[in-house]
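#structure-requests
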Amino acid sequence: MGKLVLVPTPIGNLQDMTLRAIEALKAADAVAAEDTRHSRKLLDHYGIDRKLVRLDAHTMRERGEGVLDEFPNLAFITDAGTPGISDPGAELVALALRRGYSVEALPGPTAFVPALVLSGLPLARFTFEGFLPRKGRARSERLRAIAAAAATTVFYESPHRLAATLDDLTQVCGDGRPASVSRELSKRFETTYRGTLGELTQTFAGVEVKGEVVVVVAPAPLPSSDERERDFAHEARTLAADGASGKELRRALMALGAPRNLAYRLALEAE
């Protein structure tokens, strides 16, 4: 049975390469990479003399299975970070699992985790969105979902689209929503900008941005107690119209988050 090892590589600072990652690359029959020229520099830096095979988004479907068959112990790296996150690694993992291969994912660098921590925003819950759709209905729906999200949202963005995306977020979330923008993480000019979406939109308007960018957006503000009570009252009337009553209606309201006393009162009013 073959083995696929996903090996994280530095997102900027070469010292972030782990000893375990170096050992895994040296032990592999071959190393598959998105860009062999870029990856060769990394391997040469650490004295890793292994055959490099190109496997990117354009070649994965036609070459992925063949590469797995040819190299029973295959390591996979991407241009930077942990393979499988917003890159072809996820497709390679699916191929390997379908063929009965064992898959090992080593821990290591990734951009969105330090960006989340640096944002200073609530992190008990968060959603990773990868890259947002560039246009059309899919983009509009994703932006509205971010605006309504009860958890912090983090995503990657191209530097030349950052200003437009911040402007779009301001339109759907409001200019007062807290957010952050991190760029060049782990590199010499690493910077994190914090503020409201309105402030960040002004900061990056007409500015040429370079390097990798991670955007973090705070969750939607919690509704006031009056707004929540109106919402529960509406749900109570809807449930009552559908035939719910008594204990069943109270339990349904409590399952939606209504306090016990409020659920009891609204159930009586709805009936």
